[in-house]
Specification:
- By secondary structure, the protein is of the alpha/beta class.
- The protein has 13 helices and eight strands.
- The protein has a six-stranded parallel beta sheet with strand order 4-3-8-7-5-6, with helices on both faces.
- Helix 4 runs parallel beside helix 13.
- It is globular and about 55 Å long.
- The two termini are 15 Å apart.
- Pathway: Cell wall biogenesis; teichoic acid biosynthesis.
- It catalyses: UDP-N-acetyl-alpha-D-mannosamine + N-acetyl-alpha-D-glucosaminyl-di-trans,octa-cis-undecaprenyl diphosphate = N-acetyl-beta-D-mannosaminyl-(1->4)-N-acetyl-alpha-D-glucosaminyl di-trans,octa-cis-undecaprenyl diphosphate + UDP + H(+).
- One of its GO terms (molecular function) is N-acetylglucosaminyldiphosphoundecaprenol N-acetyl-beta-D-mannosaminyltransferase activity.
């Protein structure tokens, strides 16, 4: 992709497989997004990993959504390695789960309104209760599970509820690619200051899924911990070596 084709961003990016990843650190990302929320600017944040990139590589529609998102953060150690192979490194991995908590800290500080959408009803409720307990000054205006059909009456009800509640932050846990497709379709009408797809974060918040210990995270082995904990994910995890091999071959060719 030529640079002129990229949407203008007021922060540095590293382009990987035609997708512009933010080079901001976790703290810088938190500060940047907080300024946008408080100023009322609408922002779509994508937390992308190698699995998402490989999917986007075969889906022009989905890749277009990633390219037009206001910010794509490197949520995956494979993305960090790929940026280094391209001699254009991102600063660090910015995990969606960590960014969610940073944004909730800001919601607590500034008494921002928060809405949770996605996962099943029990997981959604438990995640809602966990966040409400941890961030008592944030204003939780609504929640709804993600088991609805696009274009259904239930979806229309959810959209009306969100529009009426006017949250400052909407976390969407519908899983990729659905959550990005859903946000891209509805954000222009909702005009929420910040919308972010958070994948399986509600499962971790609810206690249904345990996150890797910090030492595994620091070593960049969170993916391996998840594989050991959930062997059924092995097919999905195969995307990481495929992605890195693709990047190594690209570098050797160049």
């Amino acid at each position: 992709m030529q640079e002129k084709q990229l949407k203008y961003r007021d922060f540095p990016v590293s382009v990987i497989m035609d997708v512009p990843f933010s080079k901001l650190s976790l703290t810088e990302t938190e500060e940047y997004l907080t300024r946008r929320i408080l100023s009322g600017k609408t922002t779509h944040v994508v937390t992308a990993n190698p699995e998402i990139l490989m999917y986007a590589n075969n889906s022009p529609e989905y890749k277009g959504i990633l390219q037009s998102a206001d910010m794509v953060v490197p949520d995956g150690i494979g993305v960090v390695y790929a940026s280094r192979l391209r001699n254009d490194p991102v600063t660090e991995r910015v995990a969606g789960y960590d960014l969610l908590h940073r944004l909730m800290s800001q919601a607590d500080q500034h008494q921002l309104k928060v809405y949770l959408l996605g996962a099943n009803d029990e997981v959604n409720r438990l995640a809602f209760e966990r966040l409400a307990n941890d961030y008592p000054n944030a204003i939780f205006v609504g929640r709804h599970h993600g088991y609805f059909k696009d274009g259904s009456d239930i979806e229309a009800m959810i959209l009306n509820d969100i529009a009426e509640k006017k949250p400052d932050i909407l976390f969407v846990a519908l899983g990729f690619p659905r959550q990005e497709l859903w946000i891209s379709k509805h954000q222009p009408q909702l005009k929420i200051p910040l919308v972010m797809g958070v994948g399986g974060s509600f499962d971790v918040l609810s206690g249904k899924v345990k996150r890797a210990p910090v030492i595994w995270q620091k070593l960049g082995l969170e993916w391996l911990y998840r594989l050991i904990s959930m062997p059924s994910r092995w097919r999905r995890m195969m995307v990481l070596p495929q992605f890195l091999i693709k990047e190594v071959l690209r570098k050797l060719k160049n």
